[in-house]
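Teaching assistant here, posting this on the class forum so everyone can see the example we discussed in section. The complex has two components, and the goal was to see what a joint structure prediction looks like when all of them are supplied at once.
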Amino acid sequence: MYQINGYFEASTIKEAVDYLKENENSQIIAGGSDVLIKTRERKSGYVDKDLVGIMRITELHGISYDESGNILIGSTATFTEVEKNEIILKNISSLSTAVGSIGGPQIRNIGTIGGNVANGATSADSASSLFAMDAIILIEGPAGKREIPIKEFYLGPGKVALNRDELMTHIKIEKKNFEGYKGHYIKFSQRKAMDIATLGCSIMVKMDGNKIGDLKIAYGVAGPTPIRATEAELMAKGMEITTENLDKIGEKCLENASARDSWRASKAFRQQLIRELPKRAIKIALGGGE
Amino acid sequence: MLKTINCKINGRDMELQVDIRESLLDMLRDRLHLTGTKQGCGVGECGACAVLIDGQTLDSCIYMAVWADGKEIVTIEGITNDDGSLSDIQHNFVDKGAIQCGFCTPGFVVSATALLEEKPNPTKAEIRRGLSGNLCRCTGYTKILDAVESTAEQRGNKK
């Protein structure tokens, strides 16, 4: 038995937001692969809640282009849906790779991209790619709709800028942030399935002739929240892709990182991954070998 | 708090009163006595409780019973043929010796069923990935992979 008090199945965004506003004990549940586990563990903040189910809200489903050619991902799109979606595969395949590395088939069939982000974990596999794409989080609440860049959405470990009575509706990837870019995500973990990343690295690179026109490097587990290696990104502009330059970029990435020791890996090992993974990811994105 | 749900389980339409605190696994085992579905870890890591919901493999331990409303659910009991004989996947698990204690087997068969439905001719890597949400703590996975591969080959030969 899950330790919950009530359950309300919302069928529209408005229904969900109204319920959240009226009932202070309410809490959103999407696929449940985080919430139900925490509920059963009786984790503080997850006990005796009135859960609001959002998986049957059709407005939150699907992946599409908006009128400006930006990609809109419904917050309840499951990892399986994102992984196999043609719009994602065509434009931002690194996100497909990222969500495809999560858990196993059963988790990917139920877990949602919105939940992955709203959970606030630095290790969330989708998050670093969304950071590299400067994703925008679309939110609806009692005060109406608002949009917030993903960098500002993450406040700390497990903390995001989403009020209890607000609902994340979509994740937007603007056309300018994927058009002309190639990307790749590398999850470094001990097992290839059912494991949490020791370190995750997602890059987006746009070439200008044989020089780097723009480079975005994002990490999971290189700090308390996903981060961007902004110093390295700045330095990389205009560089040619050579082994020496890639080494310089990898080294520079450490300036934005604050890796730590955990039972999964030591700080030193993580720092080595922070240096190494963007180099590999850039090479793979540009069609080079491993 | 009780809720009434309507769902199809192993081909039969059902109307059920479920407690909102129940997992689908609780409902299947305790209410419907479909005890072929097992509880292993209880947190969605081992896959022993896998069932098919609208054709997708899902862990029933982290799925609320109320979510089953309007869904079509197939458990290991529904994968076995109507006359009680084994499905081809189950047969191959037996033939290849892909079973030791058997606790994980229903979940593996469910995941393998979904995998072969989606990918009738999977590569070895695809089989491994398709079964990666299921753990077996007795033995290696080689014979389980062999059983699934043989099933795909046999089905291909029939065509």
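For the discussion questions: The beta strands of chain B are 2-9, 12-19, 50-53, 56-59, 72-74. Residues 2-79 of chain B form a domain with the Ubiquitin-like (UB roll) fold (CATH 3.10.20.30). Think about how each of these relates to the inputs above.
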